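Quick one:
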Amino acid sequence: MPRVIHTGDTHVGYQQYNSPARRRDFLEAFRNVAEDAVSGDVDAVIHAGDLFHDRRPGLVDLQGTVEVLRTLADADVPFLAVVGNHEGKRDAQWLDLFADLGLAVRLGAEPYLLEDVAIYGLDFVPRSRRESLTYEFEPLPETAEHAVLVSHGLFEPFAHADWDTERLLSESTVDFDAVLLGDNHKPDTAEVSDTWVTYCGSTERASAAEREARGYNLVTFDDEVAITRRTLEATREFVFVDVDLADGEGIDRVRERVREYDLAEAVVIVTVEGEGKPITPAAVEEFALEREALVARVNDRREIADEDDELSVRFADPDAAVRDRIRELGLSDAAIGIDRTVRDEAVADANVRETVERRVREALEEDRSAFEPAPGRDPETVTTVADALGADDDAGGSEGSADDDDDEGATESVDGETAEGRTHDEPSTDDDEQVSLGDLT
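Output:
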C-alpha cells in the first residue's frame, strides 16, 4: 500500500516583499515537507513543478535545495518531479542535474514503478503548443495496479483553467487513476472521467490572497486512491486585519484593530473598507512595524468623493486614473490587453512577467502589426511594443530576476478577494520547445 506526499509550487528563491526572511521561508517550507516525509515513513515525495521560483536560482537556494534532497535520499525516500513554468529552461533542467547527482527522478513518458504504482510525468507545456501535443506514454508495467500522472498547469475544471483535462484523459495511451497537479496554489480535488484530479497547493503564501493554511496532499494507493490534506504548521504567520470604518472613523480605529493582534515576526495585511475618513497607508504600516511585524501592507479598498463631487479620490483602485489615461493614448487592442494583464488582480505578482511575455508573443505570432495604434485612435507617443508595455521593469522586472517580481512598491496585491491560486499562467522558458512527451523527457 504505497503512500506518497504530493507537493509542489515550493518556489524556492522567491524574495517576496523584497524580504530576505521571506526568501528563507520558502526554502524552509520545502525542508519541512521533506522532514514530514522522513518522519511519516512515506514511500516517495512527488513534486508537481515550480520547485524554484526562477529558472536561474541563486547559489544559496541551490545549496539549500540540494541539502533538502539529500535528507530525502539518505532516508531512501525518492524525490519524483516534473518541471514547472517558473523554473523551465530551454535545454537541460535543474531537475536533470539533481537526477545526475542521484537526488531526484525526472518523471516522463516512461513510468517510474513504486511498488505497484506506475508514475508518469508531463512537464509544463505552453498553451500555444498543446493542440499538437500527443499524450503517448509507455505501456503500463504488468505488475502495476495503479497509474498516476504528475503535471503542471491550470487544468479543468478548476479556476482559470486553460488545459483540457478530458482531452488529456481520453487521448492518453494509459488509463490514469489519478492526476497530481501543480501550478494552482489553492488545493482542490475533483473527479473527471472517473479519474481523481487534484492540486496540492503551495507550501508558502506567494500572494496575500492565499489566506488558507499552506500544506500538501497525502496520497494512498490501496484498492482505491485516497487523497487527504496535511497542513504545514511552521510556515510564516500572516495576520489579516480587516477594518470596516464607520462614518467619522479613521486611522485611530485602524490602529485600534491592529493592536488586537500579536504581530511579532508576522506578515501583516491590513484591508480597509467602509465609509470612514481617508487614511495614510504608510502610517499604518509604520505602526505595524513598530509592533515588530516583519512586513506590513495596507490595502484601502474604498472610493471617496469630495463634497462637490468634482474630484474622485479612489483608494480601492489607485490605477483607475491611469486606466482612464490609457484609453486616451491611442493604443492598439493588443497593447491595451497587456495593460489590463499587468493590472489584473487575478494574476499574482510573481507571474506578471511570464504572463506578459506570453501574451506579447501570442499577439505577435497572430499579427506582426498587433501593436500598431488602432485605427480611429489618436496615437501620441506609443508606437512600439516597449512603449505599449512601459519601461521594462514595469512589465515585471528584468529577465531572469526573481527579486524583481515582487519588489517593494511594485504590484503586490493585498486584496483578500483576488483569485487565490492564479499564479503561473505561462512559462519563464526562453522558448517553447516543449511540444511532445519525448521532448519533455
